[in-house]
Amino acid sequence: MATLFVVQPKFPLVISLFSSSSHYQGWRVRPFTVQKLNPFLSKSLTESKKRRTLICAVNQDPEESFKKTVEVDRLIDMLRDANPRELQKLVVENVLAFNEGFWIRLAARTDTCKSEDDKKDYEELAISVMSIVDCLVHKTNEKIESATDILKEILKPIVDGEEEIHWPPTDPEALKLMEKDIIQREQEGQLDEGFLAEVSAQLRQAKEDGDKPGLEAMLQKVLQLYASSILSKRSYAKKGEEVLKAEQFLETIIKAPEEEWNKLLLNGMTVGKGEISPEELYAVIKKRIERTLIRTEGGSYQQRILTEYVKGIQSRAEEIVQVLQGKP
Predict the structure, then answer these.
(1) With CB atoms counted within 10 Å of each terminal CB, which end of the chain scores lower, N or C?
(2) Which PANTHER family does the UniProt entry name for this protein (predicted)?
(3) What is the rounded average pLDDT of the residues 56-67?
(4) Above 70 in pLDDT, residue 142?
(5) What span, in angstroms and rounded, lies between the C-alpha atoms of 305 and 311?
């Protein structure tokens, strides 16, 4: 599989989601936004404590109501256990089931979760389902784009009208447009395994050709933006009222543009000006990788891209530590 980093001679496990030309130079080539939810969904999630028992209509037969609740629970369980591709298929097949009763039941189950991780899973599920439903509504009379079409549209602000691909782009606004498109499409569920496979294949081909450094860097940026967006959805920086500073530091790096990583690491680690030891950072990176492996499909492009992105942060931290400590 083509990777997110170009050259990491000292750290062969992390190969090329990023491009690094020296110990200090920033990798060239990511963010996250939350799509506006349907007003009812937002309301149902925030007011679930008030209405968790309102699953049945007042005048509805209790037995019939129970059967419908069981059906909704079965659908929620299937959606929760599905991978991204299966989730889209399930939503399409059951699009008429996403009525008020579904959202109330989902909100009730979210509210009764025993762990914060489970609660976050349900919240993310609600956002994903709502995004896919919204996308279906807007795409009803439009052609469904293939993975190649989607990639072309994402790259369009940078390559449109250009005879040769320059990186970074000569127009900074073009990069912002590309980032915005990636974020939007990820929220709508368009950046599935097919898309990731397409980007990875083109990146691998660009590396083999060796004469398209601009295209290679641009495709790496696409994967970085995707990884940062997915990883930024879930926070582990709080345990009750306690702020876990090492987790918070890692999440700051994950969300930051790649070219700012060196500065953040220098200012945040104890080998520089900060208060987080390299060992503390490596420990939370290890936990994040373990969590990612558990929550993604084994062997999938998504799993590989997300874990490589996090490993890239550790590789850069290790490189900075070695340089500052004067080790060869």
Answers:
(1) C
(2) EXPRESSED PROTEIN
(3) 66
(4) no
(5) 10
Q: What's the pLDDT tens digit per position in 72-111?
A: 999 999 999 998 878 888 888 888 788 888 999 999 999 9
- pLDDT in the model for residue 22: 36
Contacts (Cβ under 8 Å, ≥6 apart) of 250 = 281, 284, 285, 288, 313
> Could you tell me which residue, 175 or 274, shows the higher pLDDT?
274
- Residue 322: count of CB within 10 angstroms of its CB: 14
Q: How far is CA 162 from the centre of its chain?
A: 30
CA separation for the pair 311, 31 (Å, rounded): 18
**What is the greatest pairwise CA distance in the chain?**
76
Per the CB < 8 A criterion, the answer to whether 259 and 27 are in contact is yes
CA dist 78 and 86 (Å) reads 9
**Residues linked to residue 212 through DSSP beta bridges, in sequence order:** none
Q: Which residue has the tokens 């509805």?
A: 60
Strand (E) or helix (H) holding 242: strand 242-243
- pTM score, two decimals? 0.65
Separation between Cα atoms, residue 295 and residue 278, nearest integer Å: 26
Listed by start position, the domains of the chain span 39-139, 238-324
3-state secondary structure of 243: strand
Tokens of 119: 């609660």
Tell me which residue has tokens 């506006």. Answer: 36
C-alpha span between 297 and 203 (Å, rounded): 22
Could you tell me if 4 and 223 are in contact, meaning their C-beta atoms sit under 8 angstroms apart? yes
Peptide bond into 84 cis (omega under 30): no
The mean pLDDT of the chain is 80
DSSP annotation of 26 reads: P
**Residue 155 half-sphere exposure, CB side, CA atoms within 13 Å?**
24
